[in-house]
Amino acid sequence: QVQLVESGGGLTQAGGSLRLSCAASGSIFSINGMGWYRQAPGKQRELVAAINSGGRANYADSVKDRFTISRDNAKNTVYLQMNSLKPEDTADYYCNAEVRSVWYGPHNAYWGQGTQVTVSS
Predict the structure, then answer these.
(1) What is the DSSP string of 14-74?
(2) Over the stretch 15-55, which tens digit does the pLDDT of each residue have?
(3) Is the dihedral of CA 48, 46, 14, 114 positive or negative?
(4) What is the rounded CA–CA span in Å between residue 73 and residue 53?
(5) For the chain, which terminus, N or C, has the lower number of CB atoms within 10 Å?
(6) In the beta sheet, which residues pair with residue 31?
């Protein structure tokens, strides 16, 4: 079993910054891609940023040049540094990881429980 635990959400004003963390634990042999998604009330969950095991990242257009995703492979942890936050960034943020639990097994997708980010105008 694999658990993803997020932290770092909260309330901030427009223009502020927050840093999200997501630590994976449990039965982990390797982790392929890791990413952050968000879901605002009444909207579908959308990809915010993703990073592969080699460190290559991609971002949603709406967060480019404001958000930075990074990972610490030794700690099985992915981060999302969010700067210049806007009210439209308000959402529940979820981390995702593609985890292989045994060397011969497939990568399975796991999700965190979500952390709330609220940006006031």
Answers:
(1) TT--EEEEEEEEES-SEEEEEEEEEE-TTS--EEEEEE-TT--EEE-TTTTTTEEEEEEGG
(2) 999 999 999 999 999 999 999 999 999 999 999 999 999 99
(3) negative
(4) 8
(5) N
(6) 99
